[in-house]
Design brief:
The chain has one domain: Protein Transport Mog1p, Chain A (3-Layer(aba) Sandwich), CATH 3.40.1000. The chain is about 25% helix and about 25% strand. It has 5 helices and 7 strands. Strands 1, 2, 3, 4, 5, 6 and 7 form a 7-stranded antiparallel β-sheet that branches. A hairpin with a 5-residue loop joins strand 5 and strand 6. Keywords: Signal. This is Secreted protein. It comes from Kribbella italica.
Length: about 230
C-alpha cells in the first residue's frame, strides 16, 4: 500500500479540523461583518377615531322661524348624566324619573327671539315604552306650578300649562307656556318663556306654544315617504 507523505497528512488534518494557524481556517478569527437583517415593517397606524354619531332625534325637532340659537343654553343631544349635570334643576328627582322611564336618549334645541325677550325650548326624551313616557311627563309636570292651561287642537292627550311670576331679577317677571305630549315611546316637551316688567301686562305666548306643538306632533307622527 502506498503511504501519503507527512506534508499531505498535515494538510488533510488542517482541512478537517480547521486548527488555528492552519491556512484557510477561521476559528478564533474576529468577524468584521454582520448579516443584513430585513428591514422591519413600519408599525401599523391606529385607525382614525370615528366621529360621534349624530343623534337621530336631531332631525325630528321643530323650531320657530326667525329665532336664532341661544348660545347661553345647550342645544344638542344629551344623556342621563349630561341632563342631570347641566339641564336639571332637581337632579335627584329627575334621576329617579328618568331611570324609572328607562330613558335611552334625549335632545334639546333652544332658540331666542330677535329681541332676546322670548325663548323657545323643545326637548325630546326617548323612553322604554309609551306608558313610561307618559309617567315621565306626569313626573316633570308635578315639578311645575302652573296656574292655568289651554287647548292644542289636533294634538291628542296633550298636557298644557301657563303661569306668570317673578324670575329672580328685580322688577322683572316671567311668563311661561308649556305643552307636552307623547307619541310612541317619545315625550315631547315644548316651553315658551318671555320676560318683561312686573308692572306690564305680561302674558304667556300660548299662541306660539300651540302652533309649535301642532307642528312638532305632525313631524313626529308623519311617516317618511318611501
Amino acid at each position: 500500500m502506498r503511504r501519503t507523505g507527512p506534508g499531505v497528512t498535515v494538510l488533510v488534518v488542517c482541512a478537517l479540523l480547521a486548527l488555528p494557524g492552519c491556512a484557510g481556517g477561521d476559528a478564533g478569527a474576529v468577524t468584521t461583518g454582520t448579516a443584513n437583517k430585513a428591514a422591519a415593517p413600519p408599525a401599523p397606524t391606529a385607525p382614525p377615531t370615528p366621529a360621534a354619531a349624530k343623534s337621530a332625534l336631531a332631525g325630528l325637532v321643530v323650531v320657530p322661524n326667525g329665532y336664532a340659537a341661544d348660545a347661553r343654553e345647550l342645544s344638542g343631544p344629551f344623556t342621563l348624566q349630561s341632563f342631570l349635570g347641566t339641564l336639571s334643576g332637581v337632579p335627584a328627582e329627575d334621576r329617579a324619573l328618568l331611570l324609572n322611564a328607562s330613558f335611552k336618549e334625549g335632545y334639546q334645541a333652544v332658540r331666542v327671539s330677535p329681541d332676546r325677550e322670548k325663548q323657545y325650548t323643545i326637548r325630546l326624551f326617548r323612553t322604554g315604552s309609551k306608558r313610561k313616557a307618559q309617567d315621565l311627563r306626569a313626573g316633570f309636570r308635578s315639578q311645575d306650578n302652573f296656574t292655568g292651561k289651554y287647548g292644542v287642537p289636533g294634538v291628542p292627550d296633550v298636557r298644557t300649562g301657563r303661569r306668570v311670576g317673578p324670575n329672580g331679577v328685580p322688577d322683572e317677571a316671567e311668563a311661561v307656556a308649556q305643552a307636552a305630549f307623547v307619541t310612541g315611546n317619545l315625550l315631547a316637551q315644548i316651553t315658551v318663556r318671555q320676560t318683561g316688567p312686573i308692572a306690564g301686562n305680561l302674558q304667556p305666548d300660548t299662541t306660539l306654544a300651540t302652533a309649535l306643538a301642532q307642528q312638532q306632533y305632525k313631524r313626529l307622527t308623519t311617516k317618511p315617504s318611501s
